[in-house]
């Protein structure tokens, strides 16, 4: 076990690709996936709690919360897909059940849903089987399975909000309603949806469902059949409700990816960055779009339109319907208060970030500040973000940080370390004197940061290193790489290797106290290993991210561990010991209180504070004046109210006195009436007592007589019962034999009826298949035949019922006579009840078949209506064919000369491309010339460095000679020692070859060499200046030419796209012309009915085509002139231009 423990503290980010990845647990708590965890986020307190995922989970696929908001279901992708159900009311959100597909090979569950009573769960498995599972999840029992489709994909499944047995499944070309009956899921509707890709749906009532498509349509279904449609962009017309415009491109229409219902209507997505609110109207329970809510621009991006292009993934509404929350496909969370949307009727409503703006791409870098609790991350989404790991908030914008660190970037850029392979990780020593790096070539290098020299190296070709860290004493290097081992390197030698089993390490970090190592794996987990490294494999592994961890770092006070991953999430861990206490700090560190702010911002802030102070003073004076006015008004009102209340008090006193007088009078009258009532009541009571005594005496006499009669009757009945007892035994034996024979006959008759019924059901199913293939005529014949059969079955069943009723009457009479001996008769009754149940089940089957026939009749009628509508529409379209044929021929005549002009311009463009190629060749030659000059300059620099080194060597020699001469001066009073020291000095510094060289050197040659050297240095300096100027000028021309050419080519491409569009339209007209040739005669006769609409449409098209062609002609002439000018004035460029689209 590790000496320290890492505990999840906070996480920034959202895991995308999870179906239904944002849920409300209660009014102020949401649940969403992040990394390999499910996060419970409190909106008010901004705190989090974590539900870790299962070990070695490949990915989360879907989430669902129960209707009572107690249970959370999470589907995970493994070798065998699982659904884990958690109890959210438990403090630790303990795991309740783990569901699987049983014996079926299921790799993933793409979506799921709880029933309204939270007892059942449905899960849709992925391809290629696309099986729907129906569980009683508390018992871990699969109730039923059904294959929903063979092509896929399925986007959503759901329960009816009022029925546990009714299920809706929607997807690409699919909308089905299933009902759980007789232990199986059976489809109850038959809607053909091949032309629709349904992305989402929602139940509005027990029978009504709203479904959203990828073409921006909202389809309304009642009892499984389509009843109408809505548009999220504009109010649809009557024609649009009948049939959708198939010519519209789905890519240009808003996709309805999420729908969330509430009491007033529903909210749905309406394309990128937009959510629409629909409310019920009074007319026929239809819906009307009331508001649009937009996603605001993200301040972390330079382009504000990037945030507006996000697709809505999930919509959810809080239990009190106060808050609407949304998640996007780029990992962002938003929310808005619905009451504020209703209040701001005249303004554009916008979402707000649920917590912060997150990274939407892979996080590639992580750095930490020493003097402040700040961390910086960079990502492939082209943003750098600053976070505070103590307050758990995102900080200021990047421009302030860039300005502050500009000088540091210049300092670091002066040191260049030559290393050709890709560098994967670097680490600085504590005093910044050394830099350690590792790369893909399996080398670990240690550099001197001051001189830039490589001090040591450790190379292992079989391993590509991905991360390293230094020990606190800077003597040991810990590195990880592709060989799944942790290496401890010291003095260029690998001291130890610890294998990681099957997990590849991607990064590593060490605490500043040296007590533990933390490693990140390719599975997204974090491992804590104690240091010194144990002899055996011993570590603690934590579930962290859903993708490989890219970077990790420990804060300078060893209190937090920070990890980032390819899933775009930043996870903050709290480092504690085994007892749950924070690690002891070697020295207390207090963070700096200074903030980074520019001078202009500070001046602006001060000016703003001054304005606010002035405004506060003005408000104080104004408030005091208003208070004085209010005091005067209130005093006046108090005086008026006091006078009014005094008058009311006086009037109430007089009324009170009058009421007291009346009360005294009423009390006297009440006493007199009460005495009279008491006297009357006493007299009536005495009369009643005397009457009751007489009645009691009479009743006693009657009771005595009845008692005697009862004794006599009891004796007579006992004699009769004895006689009946004897006769009962004989009669019971006879009846038992008789009814046993009868029951046997009925059982055999019912068996025959069951066989006949099953045979009839099989025949009926085959007949249904034939009716679907043969059409309406055979359906009518089959309906008549089966109605006759049903009538016969009814008659037979009625006969059986009559016989059963007769038997029941006889049976009841025997029961009254033989009350004490009815055990065997009860057995017969039980069997009889079973037979009645079988008969009732057969009657139910007959009723189901009847309803199925009725539904088929309704479907046939709908199809006939659709065929009639299509025929009428076809007749209207044929009326326009003749006019279109004529106009197509005219347009062809007009377009042929224009196509010739376009062809000529295309040839001219190709010639211009050839000229551009020549310019590029010239550019290449110039670059070669520049390269030669650079080589010459490099050789000259090399010679100059040699000469400088020689000068430094001579200066060092002179310093040593001076030092030795100074030592010789010390012997100036001792001639012998002075002579010896001078001889020694001569022998040390003067060689025989130097003497010969000195003697042989001519003074004229030295002067000539120095003159030539100075001349060459001047030439090199002038060439450098000239080369720099030429390079700058050439670069400016090259950039300018590149921009102009790119702009011209873009305009040409746009014109060609328009030309292709016109050609496509002409092709469509030619296709329509070919289709209309068969009905030309009929079209010619029908065109006289509505000539005006066709002529108006054709005139509009002709004017539009003429306008587009005229515009293209002007643009082509302008571009030709600009290209000619550029060809004459633009110098050669080596920049490759974009390809011209043809």
UniProtKB/TrEMBL annotation:
WD repeats lie at residues 356-391, 423-457, 542-575. Keywords: Coiled coil, Repeat, WD repeat. InterPro entries: CFA-57, WD40/YVTN_repeat-like_dom_sf, WD40_repeat_CS, WD40_repeat_dom_sf, WD40_rpt. Residues 227-253 are annotated as: Disordered. Gene3D superfamilies: 1.10.287.1490, YVTN repeat-like/Quinoprotein amine dehydrogenase. Residues 227-237 have a biased composition (Polar residues). Residues 602-852, 888-950, 1006-1072, 1102-1129 form a coiled coil. The keyword Cytoplasm does not apply. The keyword Transcription regulation does not apply. This is Cilia and flagella associated protein 57.
């Amino acid at each position: 076990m590790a000496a320290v423990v890492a505990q999840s503290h906070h996480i920034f980010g959202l895991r995308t690709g999870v179906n239904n990845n944002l849920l409300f647990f209660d009014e102020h708590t949401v649940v969403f996936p992040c990394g390999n965890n499910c996060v419970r986020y409190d909106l008010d307190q901004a705190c989090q709690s974590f539900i870790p995922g299962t070990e070695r989970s490949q990915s989360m696929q879907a989430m669902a919360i129960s209707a009572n908001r107690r249970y959370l279901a999470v589907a995970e992708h493994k070798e065998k897909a699982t659904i884990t159900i958690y109890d959210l009311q438990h403090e630790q959100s303990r795991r309740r059940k783990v569901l699987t597909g049983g014996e079926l090979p299921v790799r993933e569950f793409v979506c799921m849903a709880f029933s309204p009573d939270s007892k059942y769960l449905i899960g849709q498995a992925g391809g290629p089987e696309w099986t729907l599972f129906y569980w009683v999840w508390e018992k871990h029992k699969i109730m039923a399975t059904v294959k929903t489709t063979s092509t896929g994909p399925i986007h959503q499944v759901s329960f009816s909000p009022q029925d546990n047995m009714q299920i809706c499944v929607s997807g690409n070309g699919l909308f089905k309603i299933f009902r759980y009956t007789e232990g199986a899921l059976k489809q109850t509707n038959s809607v053909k949806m091949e032309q629709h890709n349904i992305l989402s749906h929602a139940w509005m009532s027990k029978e009504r469902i709203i479904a959203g498509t990828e073409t921006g349509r909202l389809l309304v279904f009642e009892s499984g059949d389509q009843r109408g449609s809505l548009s999220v962009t504009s109010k649809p017309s009557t024609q649009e409700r009948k049939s959708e415009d198939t010519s519209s491109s789905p890519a240009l229409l808003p996709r309805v990816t999420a729908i969330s219902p509430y009491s007033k209507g529903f909210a749905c997505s309406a394309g990128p960055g937009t959510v629409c609110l629909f409310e019920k109207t009074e007319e026929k329970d239809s819906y009307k779009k009331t508001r649009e809510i937009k996603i605001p621009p993200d301040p972390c991006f330079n382009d504000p339109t990037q945030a507006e292009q996000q697709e809505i993934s999930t919509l959810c509404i809080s239990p009190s319907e106060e808050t609407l929350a949304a998640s996007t496909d780029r990992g962002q969370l938003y929310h808005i208060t619905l009451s504020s949307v209703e209040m701001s009727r005249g303004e554009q409503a916008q979402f707000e970030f649920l917590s912060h703006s997150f990274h939407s791409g892979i996080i590639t870098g992580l750095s930490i500040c020493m003097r402040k609790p700040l961390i910086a991350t960079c990502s492939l989404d082209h943003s750098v973000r600053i976070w505070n790991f103590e307050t758990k908030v995102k900080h200021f914008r990047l421009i302030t940080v860039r300005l502050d660190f500009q000088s540091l970037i210049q300092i670091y850029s002066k040191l260049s370390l030559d290393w050709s392979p890709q560098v994967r990780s670097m680490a600085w020593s504590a005093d910044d004197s050394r830099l350690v790096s590792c790369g893909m070539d399996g080398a670990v290098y240690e550099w001197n940061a001051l001189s830039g020299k490589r001090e040591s190296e450790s190379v292992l070709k079989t391993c590509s290193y991905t991360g390293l860290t230094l020990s606190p004493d800077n003597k040991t290097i810990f590195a990880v790489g592709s060989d799944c081992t942790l290496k401890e390197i010291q003095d260029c030698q690998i001291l130890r290797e610890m294998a990681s089993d099957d997990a590849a390490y991607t990064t590593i970090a060490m605490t500043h106290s040296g007590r533990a190592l933390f490693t990140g794996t390719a599975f997204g987990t974090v491992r804590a290993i104690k240091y010194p490294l144990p002899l055996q494999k011993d570590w603690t592994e934590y579930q962290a991210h859903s993708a490989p961890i890219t970077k990790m770092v420990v804060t300078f006070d060893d209190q937090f561990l920070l990890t980032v991953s390819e899933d775009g999430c930043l996870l903050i861990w709290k480092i504690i010991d085994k007892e749950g206490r924070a690690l002891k700090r070697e020295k207390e560190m207090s963070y700096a209180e200074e903030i980074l702010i520019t001078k202009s911002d500070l001046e602006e802030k001060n000016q703003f504070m001054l304005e606010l102070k002035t405004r506060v003073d003005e408000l104080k004076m104004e408030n005091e004046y208003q208070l004085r006015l209010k005091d005067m008004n209130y005093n006046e009102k108090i005086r008026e109210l006091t006078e009014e209340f005094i008058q009311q008090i006086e009037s109430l006193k007089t009324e009170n006195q009058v009421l007291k007088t009346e009360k005294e009078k009423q009390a006297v009258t009440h006493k007199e009436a009460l005495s009279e009532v008491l006297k009357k009541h006493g007299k009536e009571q005495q009369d009643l007592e005397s009457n009751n005594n007489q009645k009691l005496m009479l009743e006693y006499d009657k009771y005595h007589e009845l008692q005697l009669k009862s004794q006599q009757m009891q004796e007579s009945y006992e004699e009769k019962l004895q006689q009946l007892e004897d006769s009962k035994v004989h009669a019971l034996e006879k009846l038992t034999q008789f009814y046993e024979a009868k029951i046997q006959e009925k059982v055999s008759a019912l068996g025959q009826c069951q066989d006949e019924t099953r045979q009839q059901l099989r025949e009926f199913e085959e007949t249904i298949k034939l009716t679907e293939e043969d059409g309406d005529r055979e359906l009518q014949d089959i309906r008549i035949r089966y109605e006759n059969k049903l009538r016969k079955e009814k008659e037979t069943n009625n006969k059986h019922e009559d016989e059963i009723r007769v038997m029941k009457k006889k049976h009841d009479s025997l029961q009254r006579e033989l009350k004490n001996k009815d055990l065997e008769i009860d057995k017969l009754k039980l069997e009889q009840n079973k037979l009645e149940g079988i008969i009732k089940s057969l009657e139910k089957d007959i009723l189901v078949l009847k309803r199925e026939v009725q539904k088929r009749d309704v479907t046939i009628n709908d199809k006939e209506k659709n065929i009639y509508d299509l025929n009428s529409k076809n007749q209207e379209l044929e009326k326009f064919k003749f006019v279109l044929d004529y106009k197509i021929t005219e347009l062809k005549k007009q377009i042929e000369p224009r196509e010739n002009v376009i062809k000529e311009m295309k040839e001219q463009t190709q010639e211009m491309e050839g000229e551009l190629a020549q310019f590029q060749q010239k550019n290449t030659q110039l670059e070669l010339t520049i390269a030669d000059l650079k080589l010459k300059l490099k050789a000259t620099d090399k010679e100059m460095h040699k000469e400088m080194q020689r000068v430094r060597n001579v200066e060092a020699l002179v310093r040593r000679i001076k030092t030795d001469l100074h030592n010789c001066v010390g012997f100036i009073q001792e001639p012998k020692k002075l002579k010896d020291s001078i001889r020694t000095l001569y022998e040390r510094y003067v060689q025989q070859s130097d003497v010969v060289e000195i003697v042989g050197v001519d003074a004229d040659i030295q002067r000539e060499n120095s003159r030539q050297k100075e001349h060459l240095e001047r030439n090199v300096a002038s060439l450098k200046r000239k080369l720099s100027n030429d390079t700058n000028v050439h670069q400016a021309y090259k950039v300018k030419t590149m921009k102009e050419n790119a702009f011209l080519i873009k305009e040409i491409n746009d014109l060609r796209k328009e030309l292709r569009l016109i050609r496509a339209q002409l092709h469509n007209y030619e296709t329509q012309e070919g289709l209309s040739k068969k009905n030309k005669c009929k079209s010619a006769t029908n065109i006289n009915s509505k000539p005006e609409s066709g002529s108006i449409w054709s005139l509009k098209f002709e004017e539009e085509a003429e306008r587009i062609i005229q515009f293209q002609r002007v643009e082509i002439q302008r571009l030709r002139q600009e290209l000619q000018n550029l060809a004459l004035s633009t110098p050669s460029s080596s920049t490759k231009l974009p390809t011209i689209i043809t």
